[in-house]
Design goal:
This protein is an alpha+beta fold and 104 residues long. It has one domain: Alpha-Beta Plaits (2-Layer Sandwich). Helix content is 32%, strand content 38%. It contains 3 helices and 4 strands. The N and C termini lie far apart (34 Å).
């Protein structure tokens, strides 16, 4: 028999975050993003990726959208900073935000 306080169980639930990325396609984008997330202890709950041609240039664009689990106690400022640095290195546009509403 275990007794768990409801507020303690809720605190143990991971928070949710969303990541969206778009940029020129190249090998290793998912690997590099995953490495940053893993280094900070985040998990990928869902990942959608697609490649399409850019409307003006016709060059291949890579798009990704990920739903992430953020463990309790993990601050997002460091994650955001590392993701922004990687986005600059990869020359991609990246949005990263915590999901605060229950609808996701």
């Amino acid at each position: 028999l275990a007794v768990v306080r409801a507020d303690a169980a809720a605190a143990a639930q991971p928070r949710l975050a969303r990541l969206e990325l778009v940029g020129h396609d190249r090998p290793g984008i998912v690997r590099d993003i995953s490495a940053v997330l893993a280094r900070h202890g985040l998990s990928i709950d869902a990942l959608e990726t697609a490649c399409e041609n850019a409307s003006m240039s016709g060059e291949p664009l890579f798009r990704a959208r990920a739903e992430l689990a953020v463990p309790a106690g993990i601050g997002l400022a460091g994650v955001r900073s590392d993701l922004e640095a990687l986005a600059n290195e990869l020359m991609v546009d990246l949005d990263f935000e915590e999901v605060t509403d229950s609808a996701g």
